[in-house]
Amino acid sequence: MELWFTELQKPGMKISCKVLQTLHREQTPFQEIVLLDTVQFGRMLVLDGAVQVTLLDEFVYHEMLAHVPLHAHPAPKDVLIIGGGDGGTAREVLRHTELESVTLVEIDRRVVDVCRRFLPELSCSYDNPKLQVHFEDGVEYVKNKKACYDVILVDSPDPVGQAARLFSAEFYRAIFEALRPDGIFAAQTESPFVDAELIGRVYRDANRVFPITKLYQAVVPTYPTALWTFTVGSKRYDPETCLRKPLFEDDLRYYNADLHQASFKLPNFVKKLLR
Hints:
Number of domains: 2
CATH architecture of the largest domain: 3-Layer(aba) Sandwich
Largest sheet: 7 strands, mixed
Strand order of the largest sheet: 8-7-6-9-10-12-11
Radius of gyration: 18 Å
Strand content: 25-35%
Helix content: 25-40%
């Protein structure tokens, strides 16, 4: 008998993967956590029926969320990650040895526990002494911070339920206040093929708060339509400019200095979403 997992990505669109084994499944106070081993994508983290990361392509998402804003800042010292309990974004952030501290705020402790057990390739930085982990609501955490961080990364799930607050104008204003005078923030902002309205709204909301707001893109096969966007807001520096050459570029699988700038070159239909 063949076992398949099917994700309802959008109304009228599904993706199915052949499953070798269900490694873990539990219901927490926040969500259902499932860890699958699939034929095509390897191990896969699924939250409330939605694919979060897979071993096949997680490096694309995590490298682009982390390294674009970090290389657009000349001297980052303190970084905040909202979400990202799988550990992949923290892994990439901590490649920047000049950082003094990295704070990760994840609402569900069990996501971290499960990923540490089944996805050590992503969660390998949890024992790094520079990383501090807080298990609480990221929106509320940011509201209580003023001028504390150089870079803030929002590694959020899809804007469904409570996670919709991570895509709000109020949240971006709180991020602005939590950043230092030359701070930068970046967030994943879904697919332009199926989330056009969301991307336009997020861009306009961020643009009302930050002096410089831009969109960049990457290809992540397991996410809806594979074309994925990130919105970045900056108080001072043009995020399209790579200010520091990656000292660890040979260790990366997707990001490099040339791609940094190229990722901001948008197709016309995406540019129209930002007008």
